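[job 0412] stage=fold_complex status=start
inputs:
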Amino acid sequence: MYKKGIYEISENVCIADKVYRMRLDGFTGDITAPGQFINIQLPGFYLRRPISVCDWDEKGVTIIYKVVGDGTELMSGLEKSTKLDVLTGLGNGFDVGALKSGQTAAVIGGGVGVPPLYALTRKLLDRGVSVKAVLGFNEESQIFYDREFSELGAETIVTTVDGSRGIKGFVTDALKDMSFDHYYCCGPMPMLKAVHGLCTDLGIEGELSFEARMGCGFGACMGCSMETRNGTRRICKDGPVFRSEEVSFDA
Amino acid sequence: MPDTKISCPDLRVELSGWELDNPVIPASGTFGFGYEFADFYDINILGSIALKGTTREARYGNPLPRIAECREGIINAIGLQNPGVEKVIEEELPRLRQVYRKKSVANVSGFSIDDYVYTAKRFDELEDIGILEINISCPNVHGGGMAFGQEPEAAASVCAAVKAACHKPVYMKLSPNVTDIVSIARACEDAGADGIVLINTLLGMRIDPRTGRKIVSTGAAGFSGPAVKPVAVRMVYQVYDAVKVPVIGVGGIETADDVLEMMYAGAAAVEVGAANLIDPYACKNIIEELPRRMEAYGIARLSDIIGRAHRA
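[job 0412] stage=fold_complex status=done
writing structure:
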C-alpha cells in the first residue's frame, strides 16, 4: 500500500561526484520492503521524480540520487526544512526471504543502483544471511557507501572501470570467481544484462531491479512497461524488482 | 455575489439517460482499470470511470521511453497497451467490481471498422458498462486510431457501424489534431452518435537539449495536461454550439474551477486525465471541492450551467 504525505528535508548533502544524500522526515509506515521507491513532487516540475529508497526508519527515509537533469539539479539545491509532497511505498521491492540464515547473497550495484541495496543488506544480515557486496563505479570520484556497506558487516568489493580504486573492470569481473546462493542486482541496463547472463551461466537465480522514465509510478499509465517471460509487466507497479527467471533481455 | 445561501448543491448530471452523482470521470488511459486507485481512496465517489483503451487483440504498445515531461504537461506514447477485450472482461473487470459498484465507460479502439464493432459489441453485453466511448483519436498507433478521426466520412462510418451493432449509448472520442473539429462532430451526430467526447491528446514532441535526441521512442506523441486546457475549452465550446447531443469535456482539468469552466463551455460531464498521474487523489479532491466552489459562485444545480457561456 502506498500513500501521499508531506515530508521535511533534514539533510541534503553531496557524498560523491554529482551524487547527493537526502533525508526526508515523515511517515514511513507504508514502506514495506527494500528496493521500493518514492515519487517526489518538485516545485516547478509537472511529473514526480521516482527515487529508490536507500534506507528508512520510524522517523524518515533516506534517498541517494544523482544529478542527471533539471529536476535532480533543483533537488540538489533544496535547503533543510523544505517540505515536499511525496508518495511512498511504491513498487514491490526485493524478497528478503529468498535466503535462509547461513546462506550467502551477492548484492550487486552499479552507480546510483547501489542505494536500494543498502537497506537490503541490512535486512539480510539481520536474518543471518552472509552478504557479499559488489559495488561498481566508473571512477574513484563517483564511489560512495563502500564504507557504509562494510560497517553493516558485508564483505564489500569495489570495482572501477578505470581501475582508480578496487578491482579494475566491471562488477562481473569481481563476480565470476565468487560463490553465492542468490543475487540481488540494481544498476544500468548493460550491467543488469551482463550480471543476468553470467549468473544464468553459473546456474544461480536472483532478482534484478529496473528503472525507466515513469509517468505516474503507481501502475495507472503504462508508461514503463516491459516484456517478461510472464507477459507484459509494469516496472513501477509489478516491479521494479523482477526474478531472474522471468526477465528476458532478448527484446 | 449570491444573495441566497445554497445549502446542498446538486452535482448530478445526465448522459443519455444515465444519471451520474457528479460529472467527474477519470479519463481513459490515466486510471488503468480503476482498481489501482482503490488503494488510495473509495473510488465509488467518482461520477464514473473511463476504462483503459481496449482493442480486440492484446497490444504491448510502443517501445520505451514512452513518457516525456513538459512544462505544465506530459507527452505519452503508450500505444494502446492492453490485454485485449476478452482478458479485460475475464480478468480486469472482475477485479474492478470488487471495489466499484457503479457503471463504467468502456473505451474502444481499433484498426478497422470490424475491430471497433467486435470490441464494442463485447462491452455492449455487460450490465455495468454505462456508455461506449469510441476512440477514433489515439495519436500513438498507425493504421488505426486517429486515422478514423481525421475525416468526417471515416468518423461517421465507424460511428454508424458501432451504432448499428450496439444498444448502449455511443460516444465518439475526437482528436484535436484536425482542421475542423465541428464538421467531424456533426458527421458523428448525423451517423447516430449519442454524444461527443473531446479532446484526446494534442500531437507534440520533445527533444533533449543535452543529446539533441527525441525523448519518446515514437518522436511525436500525445501531449496533455493543464497546458492544453484552453484548447479543450475552445473545442468543447465550438462543438456544443454545433451538435444537440451531450459533450464530455476533457483536457487539462485539475481543479473544481476547471470543471466549472468546461461545463460553462458546454460539457455535460468532464474527464480528468493527466492530473491523476501526478496526484492519485486528483479526482477525489475535485469532487470534494466542487460543492464549495458552487456555493461560492451561487450555483445550486450543476446541470444548470452547461453551456451557459454561450448565453452570457
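[job 0412] summary: The first strand of chain A starts at residue 3 and ends at 16.
[job 0412] exit 0
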